[in-house]
TrEMBL record:
One of its GO terms (cellular component) is mitochondrial intermembrane space. It holds the Pfam family Complex1_LYR_2. GO terms for biological process: mitochondrial respiratory chain complex II assembly; succinate metabolic process. Plays an essential role in the assembly of succinate dehydrogenase (SDH), an enzyme complex (also referred to as respiratory complex II) that is a component of both the tricarboxylic acid (TCA) cycle and the mitochondrial electron transport chain, and which couples the oxidation of succinate to fumarate with the reduction of ubiquinone (coenzyme Q) to ubiquinol. Promotes maturation of the iron-sulfur protein subunit of the SDH catalytic dimer, protecting it from the deleterious effects of oxidants. May act together with SDHAF1. InterPro entries: SDHAF3/Sdh7 (IPR008381). Transmembrane segments: none annotated. It is found in: Mitochondrion matrix. Keywords: Chaperone, Mitochondrion, Transit peptide. This is Succinate dehydrogenase assembly factor 3. Interacts with the iron-sulfur protein subunit within the SDH catalytic dimer. The keyword Chaperone applies. It comes from Trichoplusia ni. The gene is LOC113508194.
Length: 122
């Protein structure tokens, strides 16, 4: 009974995250979808205490992002996301820190569209 209920909650959260991502700009949506998909796959067989933490953090993420992507909030703040508490870094594994760094690089590198120069007509 518990396993079936747990699986149902995980699926609902997974679908919710992808629904919330629809409000993001296309580049962020692709990156967010890929990241969420990968993280859920990685934690598919984690132990119950890790699963509880994992689901709590992803639920908080979905709620925060849903609030930030409401049209009225976007007009007021024009901001999506929030800064990571530096104290959380002390609790991350080397693998998590490397993954966070890769995510930071992907989010801050200029898109290819801005690098394209208009062609001159002769």
């Amino acid at each position: 009974m518990f396993a079936a209920d747990h699986g149902s909650r995980v699926r609902r959260l997974y679908k919710l995250i992808f629904r919330v991502h629809r409000a993001l700009p296309p580049e962020l949506r692709i990156m967010g979808d890929n990241y969420a998909r990968d993280e859920f796959k990685r934690h598919k067989k984690c132990n119950p205490p890790e699963a509880k933490i994992f689901l709590t953090e992803w639920t908080d993420y979905a709620i925060t992002l849903a609030k930030q992507t409401k049209p009225l909030q976007q007009v007021k703040k024009k901001k999506v996301g929030e800064y990571l508490d530096p104290q959380l870094l002390d609790h991350m594994s080397d693998e998590q820190l490397a993954q966070l760094y890769e995510l930071h690089k992907a989010a801050t590198e200029p898109s290819d569209e801005t690098d394209v120069k208009p062609t001159e007509s002769k």
